[in-house]
Amino acid sequence: MTDNSNDAPVAAGPEPAPGSRRSGRPALRPVAEQLARVLDTIGTIAPIELALLDAQGLLLAEEVHADAPLPGFDNAAMDGYAVRAVDLRQATEDHPVVLPVVGDVMAGARSMSGMGPGLCMRIMTGAAIPPGADAVIPLEDTDRGVARVAIHRPIRTGECVRRTGEDLPAGALALGQGAILGPQQIALLAAVGHDRVLVQPRPRVVVISTGSELVDVGRRAGFGEVSDSNSYMLAAAARDAGADAYRVGIIPDDHARLLDVLDSQLLRADVIITSGGVSMGTADIVKEALSQIGTVEFTTVAMQPGSPQGFGTLGHEKTPIFCLPGNPAAALVSFEVFARPAIRKLLGKRTVQRQTVEATALERMESPDGKRQYRRGLLHREPDGRYSVSLIGGHGSHLIAAMAASNCLVVLNEDVTEVSPGSRVTVQPLMLAQR
């Protein structure tokens, strides 16, 4: 795999405006235009039914109603004694009311006897209120008697009682379509008796690294060889975006082999991501192979790193394919800018792009005119709650250690050529360190 993406810094100077040409070279496509093309192409995935825990983090694809009231019966909110409020009207600390205890009501009891006037029953939290009782006096307001109990205060009707249907009445909407299934929502679905739900599934993302120079991780790279870090990085990034990701290994610079592998992966892929082979070198087989079958458009985007981009669809199902540059930083930036929003759209998310924050630049920053630059940075939270940011590493898109030390991308727009220390810049957090 040859990757000739020009990610080195260039002198600030006039660049062709979008839509213009210079020296016969095609104009650079704006980032926003390329992203719009991607998102316009991305469709939807049919909902599937999953078990509750498998559905965690996904969007509900149906409305769920309570088939029965929640709670399903009046029950005790505290450990104490089931009583009639009228029997305790005269109770005080100095002159408690003493009632006979005629039984125990345990949580989970399927049947019980009732109680008459002037009597009470010991009751556990969650146990059904026995017939004849209308309140629960907590243990701490009594002497905790077994055969007889002294109660030191009056009580209101309904006190410490969870009423039938007070959480949800029968037939009420429990969760609407599009709800995100977090732990609380999973609990509610279980409470209303749904062990399986219809959800928008996780996209299946297949990740392929190309290049005859690549070797599998675990094997020591020899002279001229490079460990395949991209497939691990992109698979992890896809999972972080919410997808199920699969690595299919390394494809050497072999046109026919690449097409065979792509064809074999179409049955299980909702998205395919390749890295490498998209520039202008003689061994850039991804661009060569896919350009010939006319399914993928290769273009130069006005961004740095990650200028060479390929995107299109494959097969009868029109599976989206992203052909990203091979340099690690360029591949990750390209994923963040184009592939991650596509995955989020397939998940049904309303917000497909990461939220950005404004931060104070702690150092001088430069960017080429006419290109949107994404610099690796370290985002800090200041004592006053505001953000500041410093750069990590140089411009080179091969700097993996610098990439690993960063937690954000500093976004310098196309019309920005220089940022002075103390100026405000746009930052896209990737991972805020938790200490």
Secondary structure elements and pairings:
Blueprint: H1 31-41, E1 48-51, E2 59-60, E3 64-65, E4 75-76, E5 80-83, E6 97-105, E7 120-123, E8 135-138, E9 148-151, E10 161-162, E11 173-175, H2 183-191, E12 196-200, E13 204-210, E14 214-215, E15 226-227, H3 230-240, E16 244-251, H4 255-265, E17 271-275, H5 285-293, E18 296-300, E19 303-304, E20 308-314, E21 319-324, H6 328-346, E22 357-361, E23 365-366, E24 372-381, E25 387-391, H7 400-405, E26 408-412, E27 418-419, E28 424-429
Parallel strand pairs: 6-7, 13-16, 13-17, 14-15, 17-21, 19-24, 22-25
Antiparallel strand pairs: 1-12, 2-12, 3-11, 4-10, 5-7, 5-8, 6-9, 18-20, 20-21, 22-28, 23-27, 24-25, 24-26, 26-28
Helix pairs in contact: 1-6, 3-6, 4-5
Region (Disordered): 1-26
Keywords: Magnesium, Metal-binding, Molybdenum, Molybdenum cofactor biosynthesis, Transferase
Pathway: Cofactor biosynthesis; molybdopterin biosynthesis
